[in-house]
């Protein structure tokens, strides 16, 4: 019954990055020096449109470091697809005019804390100030015509009430949607060494549950800013603490991920399908290998990451029943 139905394509246009985040190997030893050409991406986009894909996420590394990103955005829109960019945001202010003129209207921004906490995590002094300048430039120039989303990454350092409150205030300051990113420990670009101390442990459950209750309060207070479902929010402790033991069928059959070296996979963690530097995208889609990858993903015959966690909860009846129940201590109203 499970068949490939790709709807979103993520393209890591470059592995280069101007930050050196504790939890990320991009810009260091993961696909070092790799970058997709504009010609390759145009071909991929054309094949993706024919395959029924309607949303394209430009990613990295840091995608704003690719000189041809505006041309990619323009080509995506010309094909009738919706593009958005996931960026660290520090280059967004200077580069937004060309991207806006190309038709871009949404950027999602990875976020790791305020001020010195941000600079410490990204290992780049002064870059939190650069991020704030960039966001100010976007708002001053384009106001609400350009959408911004803050992706608050829940790792051991950030999973506490104080950091959550600061991140929420930051999102409100720049009129951003608020989104929770669950640390993806299975991703090949994630730093796994003990020194990083990023992964939440079972004895962290009390503070994870406290943060979850606070997230539910925020959802009730401003549902238009915080788009996650209550059921997904209630599942956050299990995603963070159970890891691969969180057994919810995966709908990665709706995804495709393209790495900066041309590697095509169902998602950014596993289930390889080929390489677009040696084959056209259209020749790699809807094959038996693609169908088997879709089935393997659904059955969790993979590292079982946090990929598409919200939609997985929403599509799984037992999960909706379980997380439809209120948590202990959850407020009934804001």
TrEMBL record:
Its cofactor is [4Fe-4S] cluster. Pfam families: Radical_SAM. It comes from Sabulicella glaciei. This is Radical SAM protein. InterPro entries: Aldolase_TIM, Radical_SAM_PqqE_MftC-like, rSAM, rSAM_sf. Residues 3-225 form the Radical SAM core domain. Signal peptide: none annotated. It comes from the Bacteria. Keywords: Iron, Iron-sulfur, Metal-binding, S-adenosyl-L-methionine.
